[in-house]
Amino acid sequence: MATKKKVRPTRRLANVEDLYGGGEKGNLLGGLYNGDPRVYAWLQNRHSKGSGIIDSRIGRDGVYRNGEHEWKVPYGVRYVLRRRLIHAQLVNKYPWYVTWKSPKTGKRLKKYFNALHAAVLFTAERAQYVDPSATVVCRIGIDIPYALVGKLPRPWKWCPCCMKARKFYRVYPPQSFHRMIRDPITWKESIREIPLLHCRVCGLTNRDHHYLKSNFWLVQRRIKPGVRRVKPMSKVKKRRRR
Ligand SMILES: [Zn+2]
């Protein structure tokens, strides 16, 4: 007997937020839509359309201009606007937030967003007037764009959540952790105690794997054929890994 083809129930959505409702707190894609290629394509299309509009307002100097509004868009935000969303960003209800400090209380405030273009619009046309250092934050960190690898001067480090270069500071009270560090030549591992640092805006620490990948680009050294003795990496370049 031929089995009937399963047809997904269709219903008109009043709001994008109706797609979500899965997970413990209801912030993940609902079970009905999870894995549905049409839903993913729709979300991707919305991202590319919205980002296209925002991108058309960004000049070559990276400044967003719309009427009287002007805002310098960080390099990482421009980079993400021009790329497709990753799976973790598709299935999350609020993958982005905008953060700023309240001028009255000095408290850090947040507003969560479902779409990146909405977050950029909010920062450029509203939040920046309250706090000039208002930032768009990606809750799922992104790696450093390839064009910036190895180009950030000290003490700047790539913050995967702020999507820009930031200074990282020690947490208070001071904490430390241990990490395995691999020598690129001998490929031997050693354990080192490292102080815990954090970004004062988004709170990301130097324990994060996106932080490690972006700031310590591990490249295996090429050894020419015929070379018998190779200097250890510690003698070639003294660099503290944090
Ligand atoms: Zn940050």
What is the structure about, briefly put?
The chain is α+β, with helices and mostly antiparallel strands and 242 residues long. The protein is 24% helix and 24% strand.
Description of the molecule:
With 242 residues, the protein is of the alpha+beta class. It folds into two domains: 16-138, no CATH class; 149-223, no CATH class. The chain has six helices and twelve strands. The strands form five sheets. The protein has a three-stranded antiparallel β-sheet with strand order 6-5-7, covered by helices on one side. A three-stranded antiparallel β-sheet has the order 8-9-12. The longest helix has 20 residues, at 37-56. It starts with 19 loop residues before the first strand and ends in a 6-residue tail after the last helix. The site of zinc ion has 8 residues, from loops.
Draw up the topology in text.
Blueprint: E1 20-22, E2 28-29, H1 37-56, E3 63-66, E4 69-72, H2 75-81, H3 87-91, E5 96-101, E6 108-113, H4 116-130, E7 135-138, E8 156-159, E9 164-170, E10 176-182, E11 189-195, E12 197-199, H5 209-215, H6 233-236
Antiparallel strand pairs: 1-2, 3-4, 5-6, 5-7, 8-9, 9-12, 10-11
The structure holds zinc ion.
